[in-house]
């Protein structure tokens, strides 16, 4: 399992999953996203975005974090967030903001609730947009990029992540299920 930058050709995949999860796609640009990949099947399992606002001052917003259902609870979202915070830091941001109705999830990484009055103007506008739209209970959070912390349990889960329910499907059929003696059969059809 690893997290990498999204590629242009993954726009459709991203937009499909953003829509399915009812996430914010405002000012969509695939290059703002990272994608979590399961190495065993090269399957995309999660994603997230940093949105850089260039108004009076440059500010960075963490948004659009999504993990496919069978992969939740295994540290995928945590590693997406870690990669995004690293990118924000690399681009010179000391603080990352997030507007979410799930503040307890981000609390574990060091995000703190902040008062509306402390928000940069553009993030305050985004808070109003979210509250008027799809996230009426949005809460503003902030994180100093150098204070991000990953709980060790999430690191361990990520190392061993696999889709929930894998192996729970139909049992594999064997030759014996069809009355074939696999120890003595030498041909597909009995000829004689």
TrEMBL record:
Residues 1-132 form the N-acetyltransferase domain. It comes from the Archaea. Residues 167-180 have a biased composition (Acidic residues). The keyword Transport does not apply. SUPFAM superfamilies: Acyl-CoA N-acyltransferases (Nat). This is N-acetyltransferase GCN5. The keyword Cytoplasm does not apply. Residues 155-192 are annotated as: Disordered.
